[in-house]
Q: What sequence folds into this?
C-alpha cells in the first residue's frame, strides 16, 4: 500500500508540478520581441528573415513548421548544440538523454501492456528497450557525475544537490536495467496494479526501482530538468517568435492591455505610481494627461 | 613589395574562432570560489589576452590603467579594476545597507508581471532553465580573448543573480542554501560588482545562439542593467545622463539641437556639391514623403560622409524622402534598448509620433544597428497600431537601388580588399544578412568574408553602448579585451594583403560599430601598420558611382 501511495504521489506531483511551471510560463504577459536568428521556420538557410524584403509588411510569409520540426528533432534526438559547442559533455549528455527517452518510451509501452495490448512481443521489446535505456542512463549519469565533479568549468557551477541528482539517476538506471533483465511481465502487472489503485505486487528489486523513480518524479518539477517542456517556450515564445503585430489581433489586444499595467520602479527618471502608458509618454518633469 | 602572411605560422593552425588556452587563469574548484571572485580584485592581466596573428606576433599590449587614488575615493570599480559606471561611493554603512535593500526591492520588481511585463517571460525562462552546462562559453569573444577570465564567462552574471534570487526572493530560500547551491550573502560590494559586470557583456547574444535550451545570458545582463537603472538610478553615464536623458531634453544624445542640425545639413550640402557636383537641398519635414530617413546623429559629427553618401544615393535614385527637424526625430539613437525600458519606450514613441505627424509612408533606418533593432522588431510590440508606421532597413532599399541599376556603378573604383563586419543587432537579432552582401559582391571585386560571419558573426566589442563608453579606464578595457576578437578577425580576413602597401576597407554599416572599429584600429595601430580603414556601406556605393567624381572615399584615418 505504501508503494502504491508513493508512486501515485510521485506521479501526481510530477503532473501538477509540471503543469504549474508550464502555466507560469504560458500565462506570463506578452513580452517585447526578442527573436534570435537563425529562426528555424524562415526559408533562408543562412539565417535571413522576412525583414530582408522590401515592403516586408505587404508580402506573404513563408513560415515552415517542417523546418522547425527538423531543427527540433536534430536538437532533441542528436543533441546537436552540445555536439557542436561542447563535445566533451556530449559523450555523457547523449547517453543520459537517450536513457531517459527510452525509459519514457518503456513507461508508455507498459501502460499499453497493462491494457492488454501487444502481448509477449511487446513485453520482449520493452525488456530490450528498458535494459538499454537503463544502461544508457546509468552510463550517462556516471560520465556527467565525473564531469560535474572534476571539470573546472562545470564544478564551480554544480551544487551538491546536482551531484545527488546524478547519483540517484545512475542508481535508477542500474535498477531499471536489472529489472528489465528479469523480464517485463511483473512490471506490467505492477503497472496494472498501480493503474487500478490496488496494492502493488512487486519484488524487492522492482519496488526499489519504483521507489527511486517516484522520488525522481517528485522533485523533477522543481528543477531545471523541466527544460524538456520549457524548451518549447524558449524557442517558440522567444527565439522564434517573429510574429508582426497586427491591429485588432489577440496579440494586439494583450499588448494594449499591458500599457495599463502599473509601474513601481523607484529611480528618479521613472514616474512611479503611474501606468506604463503614462510613464512612456511623459518625462519626469512633465505632467501626463489628466494630471 | 606586398607583405604576405607566411605559411606555417598561422597561429599554430588556429582559425579565428579557435582560441588558445589561457596561460595564467586559475581554475576555480567550488561554487564558493566563484562567488568569492566578486570580493577580490581581479585586474585583467594583459599577458593572458589571446595572441594576435601575423603581423602582430611581437605585439605587446600596454596594461589597462588602474584608477588613481582620487578616482577610487570617489567611485567604485568592478572586480576587474575597470569602471564603466562610476558608481558613487556611499558615505556611510547605513547608506550601503539602504542601497542593498533597494537592490533587493528592485529584484522583486524585475520578477513582477506588471513592472517587467516587457521581458518577464524570457527572463524567467533563462533564469530557471539554465543547466549550467557551459556550452555557450566559447561563443563569447570577451570570455575567450580575455584568456577565459572567470568573471567574463557568459554564465557568471546569471549564476550570481540566480543565487541571489533563490536565496533572498524565492520562498524557502534559507532552507539548506549550501546544499541547493545558493549560499550567498548580498552586500554593497557584491551588487557593485554585479552592476559593473553587466557592462562587460555586449549583449551580442552569441551565447544565446549556442545554448541548446534557449537560455539567453545576454538578456540576463540587460535585465541586470535595467534593475540598476530603473530602481537605483545606476547606469553607464554615456547611456543615461549623456545619452537618453540628453536626447529627450535636447533632441540628440550628441547634444545637437535643431539649430545644430541645420548647421550640419548646410555643411553637408556644401560638401556634396564640392565632392559630387550635386546641388541639393536636403529635404526636411516634407509631409507625405515615402521615407522618413533616420540617422544616428553621431554620424553627423563623426562621419558626415555617411550622411552625404545617403543623400547622394537617394537623390540620384529618385527616392521620395525627408528628414525630421523636430527634436529626437533627427536622431535614431535609442540607448534605452541597452539598459532601461522606460527610456527606451519614451524615445520609440517620440520617433513614431514624429513619423506619424509627418504622414510619411515608411521610416527608413540608416546605418545604425541598435536603431534598427530598437525601431523594428522590439518596437513592434510597443507602439500602438494607431501610431504605427512601417519601418524598413536602409540595407534593403540600398540593395533594391544597386541590384536594379537605379544608379550607375563602376566596381573597378572599389578594387581594393573589402571585408564586412556584421552588426549583431541587424544580423543575429533581425536576420538581415544578404542585402549588404549582394551589394558588396556587386561593387567590390575584392570583397571577402570574415570568419565567422552573418548570423554567426562576432560583436565588434562596442555593442550595447560600449562604443560610446569613454570614461575612466573603460575604453582601455574595451579595446584590449572586448575588441580583440574583432581585430583578429579583420587581420585574418586581410591575411593575403596585410602589409601597408595595400589600402583595405572594413565595411561596417553601423555607427556604434564604426566607433569601436576606429578605437581598436587606432589602439592596435592598424592604419599605420596595415593600412586598414573602416567606414560604412553607402560610402563604398558612392565611391563606385559613375555620376560622382572619383575619390569620394578618402583614404585618411579618422
A:
Amino acid at each position: 500500500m505504501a508503494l502504491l501511495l508513493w508512486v501515485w504521489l510521485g506521479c501526481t506531483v510530477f503532473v501538477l508540478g509540471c503543469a504549474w511551471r508550464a502555466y507560469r510560463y504560458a500565462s506570463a504577459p506578452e513580452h517585447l520581441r526578442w527573436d534570435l536568428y537563425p529562426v528555424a521556420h524562415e526559408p533562408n538557410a543562412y539565417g535571413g528573415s522576412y525583414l530582408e524584403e522590401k515592403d516586408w509588411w505587404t508580402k506573404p510569409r513563408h513560415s515552415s513548421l517542417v523546418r522547425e520540426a527538423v531543427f527540433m528533432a536534430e536538437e532533441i534526438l542528436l543533441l546537436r548544440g552540445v555536439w557542436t559547442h561542447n563535445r566533451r559533455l556530449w559523450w555523457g549528455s547523449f547517453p543520459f538523454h537517450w536513457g531517459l527517452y527510452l525509459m519514457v518510451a518503456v513507461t508508455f509501452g507498459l501502460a499499453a501492456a497493462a491494457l492488454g495490448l501487444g502481448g509477449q512481443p511487446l513485453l520482449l521489446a520493452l525488456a530490450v528497450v528498458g535494459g538499454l535505456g537503463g544502461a544508457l542512463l546509468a552510463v550517462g549519469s556516471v560520465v556527467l557525475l565525473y564531469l560535474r565533479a572534476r571539470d573546472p568549468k562545470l564544478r564551480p557551477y554544480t551544487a551538491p544537490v546536482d551531484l545527488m541528482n546524478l547519483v540517484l539517476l545512475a542508481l535508477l538506471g542500474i535498477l531499471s536495467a536489472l529489472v528489465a533483465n528479469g523480464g517485463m511481465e511483473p512490471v506490467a502487472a505492477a503497472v496494472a496494479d498501480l493503474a487500478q489503485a490496488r496494492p502493488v505486487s512487486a519484488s524487492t528489486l522492482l519496488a526499489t526501482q519504483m521507489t527511486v523513480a517516484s522520488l525522481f518524479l517528485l522533485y523533477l518539477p522543481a528543477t531545471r530538468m523541466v527544460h524538456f517542456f520549457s524548451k518549447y517556450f524558449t524557442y517558440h515564445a522567444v527565439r522564434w517568435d517573429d510574429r508582426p503585430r497586427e491591429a485588432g489581433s489577440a496579440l494586439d489586444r494583450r499588448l494594449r492591455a499591458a500599457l495599463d499595467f502599473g509601474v513601481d520602479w523607484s529611480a528618479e527618471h521613472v514616474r512611479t505610481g503611474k501606468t506604463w502608458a503614462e510613464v512612456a509618454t511623459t518625462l519626469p518633469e512633465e505632467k501626463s494627461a489628466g494630471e | 613589395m606586398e607583405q604576405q602572411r607566411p605559411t606555417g605560422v598561422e597561429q599554430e593552425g588556429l582559425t579565428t574562432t579557435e582560441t588558445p588556452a589561457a596561460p595564467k587563469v586559475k581554475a576555480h574548484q567550488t561554487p564558493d570560489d566563484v562567488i568569492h571572485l566578486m570580493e577580490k580584485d581581479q585586474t585583467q592581466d594583459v599577458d593572458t589576452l589571446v595572441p594576435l596573428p601575423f603581423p602582430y606576433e611581437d605585439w605587446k599590449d600596454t596594461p589597462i590603467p588602474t584608477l588613481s587614488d582620487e578616482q577610487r575615493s570617489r567611485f567604485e570599480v568592478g572586480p576587474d579594476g575597470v569602471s564603466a559606471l562610476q558608481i558613487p561611493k556611499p558615505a556611510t554603512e547605513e547608506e550601503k545597507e539602504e542601497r542593498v535593500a533597494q537592490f533587493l526591492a528592485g529584484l522583486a520588481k524585475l520578477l513582477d508581471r506588471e513592472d517587467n511585463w516587457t521581458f518577464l517571460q524570457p527572463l524567467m525562462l533563462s533564469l530557471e532553465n539554465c543547466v549550467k552546462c557551459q556550452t555557450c562559453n566559447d561563443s563569447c569573444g570577451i570570455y575567450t580573448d580575455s584568456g577565459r577570465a572567470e568573471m567574463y564567462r557568459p554564465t557568471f552574471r546569471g549564476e550570481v543573480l540566480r543565487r541571489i534570487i533563490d536565496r533572498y526572493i524565492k520562498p524557502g530560500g534559507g532552507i539548506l542554501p549550501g546544499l541547493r547551491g545558493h549560499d550567498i550573502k548580498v552586500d554593497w560590494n557584491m551588487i557593485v560588482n554585479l552592476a559593473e559586470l553587466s557592462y562587460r557583456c555586449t549583449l551580442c547574444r552569441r551565447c544565446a545562439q549556442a545554448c541548446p535550451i534557449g537560455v539567453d545570458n545576454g538578456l540576463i545582463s540587460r535585465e541586470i542593467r535595467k534593475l540598476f537603472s530603473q530602481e537605483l538610478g545606476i547606469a553607464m553615464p554615456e547611456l543615461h545622463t549623456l545619452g537618453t536623458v540628453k536626447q529627450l531634453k535636447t533632441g540628440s544624445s550628441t547634444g545637437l539641437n535643431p539649430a545644430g542640425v541645420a548647421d550640419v545639413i548646410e555643411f553637408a550640402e556644401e560638401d556634396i556639391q564640392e565632392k559630387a557636383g550635386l546641388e541639393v537641398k536636403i529635404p526636411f519635414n516634407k509631409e507625405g514623403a515615402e521615407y522618413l530617413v533616420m540617422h544616428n546623429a553621431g554620424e553627423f559629427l563623426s562621419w558626415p560622409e555617411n550622411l552625404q553618401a545617403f543623400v547622394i544615393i537617394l537623390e540620384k535614385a529618385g527616392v521620395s524622402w525627408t528628414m525630421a527637424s523636430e527634436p529626437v526625430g533627427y536622431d535614431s539613437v535609442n540607448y534605452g534598448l541597452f539598459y532601461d525600458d522606460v527610456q527606451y519606450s519614451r524615445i520609440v514613441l517620440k520617433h513614431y509620433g514624429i513619423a506619424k505627424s509627418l504622414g510619411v509612408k515608411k521610416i527608413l533606418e540608416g546605418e545604425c544597428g541598435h536603431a534598427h533593432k530598437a525601431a523594428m522588431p522590439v518596437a513592434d510590440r510597443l507602439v500602438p497600431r494607431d501610431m504605427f508606421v512601417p519601418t524598413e532597413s536602409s540595407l534593403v532599399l540600398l540593395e533594391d537601388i544597386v541590384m536594379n541599376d537605379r544608379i550607375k556603378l563602376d566596381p573597378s573604383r572599389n578594387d581594393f580588399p573589402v571585408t564586412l563586419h556584421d552588426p549583431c543587432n541587424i544580423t543575429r537579432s533581425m536576420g538581415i544578412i544578404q542585402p549588404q552582401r549582394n551589394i558588396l559582391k556587386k561593387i567590390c571585386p575584392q570583397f571577402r568574408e570574415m570568419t565567422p560571419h552573418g548570423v554567426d558573426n562576432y560583436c565588434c566589442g562596442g555593442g550595447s553602448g560600449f562604443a560610446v563608453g569613454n570614461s575612466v579606464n573603460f575604453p582601455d578595457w574595451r579595446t584590449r579585451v572586448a575588441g580583440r576578437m574583432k581585430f583578429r578577425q579583420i587581420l585574418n580576413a586581410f591575411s593575403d594583403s596585410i602589409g601597408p602597401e595595400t589600402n583595405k576597407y572594413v565595411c561596417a554599416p553601423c555607427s556604434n560599430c564604426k566607433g569601436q572599429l576606429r578605437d581598436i584600429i587606432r589602439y592596435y595601430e592598424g592604419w599605420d601598420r596595415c593600412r586598414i580603414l573602416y567606414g560604412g556601406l553607402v560610402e563604398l556605393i558612392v565611391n563606385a558611382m559613375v555620376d560622382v567624381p572619383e575619390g569620394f572615399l578618402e583614404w585618411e584615418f579618422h
Q: What stands out?
A: Confidence is low (pLDDT under 50) at residues 1-17, 20-25 of chain B. Strands of chain B lie at 291-294, 321-322, 362-365, 391-393, 418-420, 447-448, 504-507, 532-535. Chain B touches chain A through 100 residues (CB under 8 Å).
